[in-house]
Design brief:
Elements: H1 6-13, E1 16-18, H2 21-29, E2 34-36, E3 43-47, H3 51-61, E4 70-72, H4 79-82, E5 83-84, H5 88-97, E6 102-108, E7 122-126, H6 131-138, E8 144-145, H7 160-166, E9 173-175, E10 187-192, E11 195-200, H8 206-213, E12 217-218, E13 242-244, H9 248-254, E14 260-264, E15 276-279, H10 286-301, E16 307-310, H11 318-330
Parallel strand pairs: 1-9, 2-9, 4-7, 6-10, 11-12, 13-16, 14-15, 14-16
Antiparallel strand pairs: 2-3, 3-8, 4-8, 5-6, 6-7, 10-11
The protein binds threonylcarbamoyladenylate and magnesium ion.
């Protein structure tokens, strides 16, 4: 006699955090969304050539339809399938930095829909450098659209758990690739008259890119008509109020009644009075700080604090990227 097995039903429905890449592949092939690990942050992935899957991404992320998605491919050779008129300097950058945290904005072919590109004639694309995700990309014959796996405006996820805390429903499979090794989003480069322009600071310092192709133009603060629509000020924000100040110790001393979280770069000062303290790198190592950055913010944000206080890092190398994220995190 037929009996409804509720536990089995629940297990089927339950979100899986898994390393089973076949499960991920099969889900993607039938148009479902899967969270994927990359070296930068986790992505919320779907078949970029499947309109239904693409629309699910916008809905689940609550992403405005005018903000285009970024595409992930398995290798440089796949680039010609989705883009055209690739400038010489783009090729040079791709060959040098892929797989890796460099996103190029290039003219799209028609097979990539206007939904993906949000009506633009260009698309953002990169080859991510994560063994699980590269294996996955090599097993499918479509590119993956995968914006960061956070609701629009919130902190980017650098662990499978972060993703799971954001999306309880609507996401069945999270491919677990551990803590992201870079911990900051990719650097985005667009082209104007074939000249490279920086659209977003990211995990590759701009100086490394300039060593490859010469001077790169900057187009970062153009908030009214941004070349990269994701660059509207407020972004990457925790739910807890967060402020940038110069003197952390003084603030703590003057606000003893508050539950304060401190996010600091090095371990210079003692913040014994602070409720919670996250040090990005005890020895002041910038790569380590980058890797810990979002994770530290997620952690502080989960502690029911009244406020998170933090300071800017030295404005060089990846410090520029972290400062960019901090300024957006505190923006209104
Ligand atoms: O590291 C990363 O780039 C991660 C991982 C998952 O690959 N992805 C990521 O995606 O950060 P997302 O969507 O959070 O940021 C991509 C940015 C957005 O700000 C979007 O506006 C911009 O890329 N973008 C996408 N297509 C564009 C286009 N055609 N022109 C200019 N900017 C574009
Ligand atoms: Mg994002």
């Amino acid at each position: 006699k037929f009996s409804f097995n509720y536990t089995f039903f629940l297990k089927l429905k339950m979100q899986k955090i898994t390393t089973d890449i076949n499960l991920a592949i099969n889900s993607l092939k039938i148009g479902k969304l899967v969270a994927i690990p990359t070296e930068t942050v986790y992505g919320l992935a779907g078949d970029a050539l499947n309109e239904k899957a693409v629309k699910k991404i916008f809905i689940l992320k609550k992403r405005p339809l005018h903000n285009p998605l970024i595409l992930h491919i398995s290798s440089y050779e796949k680039l010609r399938e989705i883009t055209k008129n690739v400038p010489f300097k783009a090729k040079k950058l791709a060959k040098k930095f892929w797989p890796g945290p460099l996103t190029l904005v290039l003219e799209k072919k028609n097979k990539v829909s206007n939904t993906v590109s949000a009506g633009k004639s260009t698309i953002a694309v990169r080859v991510p450098n994560h063994p699980l995700t590269l294996k996955l990309l090599n097993s499918i014959d479509f590119p993956l659209a995968a914006p960061s796996a956070n609701p629009s405006g919130f902190i980017s996820p650098t662990t499978a758990k972060h993703v799971s805390s954001f999306f309880k429903d609507g996401l069945d499979v999270i491919l677990n690739g551990g803590l992201c090794s870079k911990g900051l989003e990719s650097t985005i480069i667009g082209f104007e008259n074939d000249n490279p322009i920086l659209y977003r600071h990211g995990a590759i310092p701009i100086s490394d890119l300039e060593n490859c192709v010469g001077t790169i133009g900057k187009k970062i603060k153009d908030n009214l008509n941004p070349s990269s629509p994701g660059m509207f000020s407020r972004h990457y924000s925790p739910r807890t109020p967060i402020i940038l100040i110069n003197n952390l110790s003084k603030y703590i001393y003057q606000n003893k009644d508050k539950k304060i979280g401190v996010l600091s770069f090095e371990n210079k000062e003692g913040f014994s009075l602070a409720t919670k303290h996250e040090i990005l790198s005890k020895n002041g190592d910038i790569d380590e700080a980058a890797k810990n950055f979002y994770s530290a913010l997620h952690s502080l944000d989960s502690k029911n604090l009244d406020i998170i206080i933090t300071t800017l890092l030295p404005e060089k190398g990846l410090g520029k990227t972290i400062n960019d994220r901090l300024k957006r995190a505190v923006a209104n």
